[in-house]
Design brief:
The protein is 33% helix and 38% strand. The chain has 138 residues and is α+β, with helices and mostly antiparallel strands. The chain has a seven-stranded antiparallel beta sheet. InterPro entries: PH-like_dom_sf, PH_domain, PHLA1/2/3.
Length: 138
């Protein structure tokens, strides 16, 4: 999917999230996150913004398991390879899951439109196929 440089660099939300570690003890680690129109960037160090992990929206299947407690909002990002990544944010800053979900829906809609246009262009480029389809019609 081709996007303009303007769309790629557009920041939708920036702030702190806590990510559950993958190790045995599963500690919550505070991360600085930047959500753009095409990815969620997770930084270990808020000051230097080095060692970024990029989670591209094309690799996210869904945002799942939203649960609210008194202090936190918990949610899980499920990737296309069925890996689950757990996050939590403070109840005051509870819209992270919604913003990620809306960015994912927007990305998937744009991709579907682009795929449709590409398919339409390919079909119009080969008129022989249209004739074959019409020949099949009763």
């Amino acid at each position: 999917m081709k996007m303009s440089a303007e769309e790629i660099s557009q920041t939708l939300k920036e702030g702190e999230l806590e990510k559950r570690s993958d190790n045995l003890l599963q500690f919550w680690k505070r991360k600085t996150c930047v959500l753009t129109t095409d990815s969620l960037n997770i930084y270990a160090d808020a000051q230097k913004r080095t060692r970024s992990k990029e989670l591209r929206l094309e690799s996210i299947k869904k945002v799942d398991c939203v649960e609210r407690t008194g202090k936190f909002v918990y949610f899980t990002i499920v990737t296309t390879d069925n890996k689950e990544i757990d996050f939590r944010c403070s109840a005051e800053d509870n819209c992270w899951n919604a913003v990620i979900t809306m960015a994912l829906i927007d990305f998937q809609n744009k991709k579907a439109i682009q795929d449709f246009k590409t398919r339409q262009d390919n079909e119009s480029a080969s008129p022989g196929q249209q004739e074959r389809r019409m020949a099949r019609a009763p």
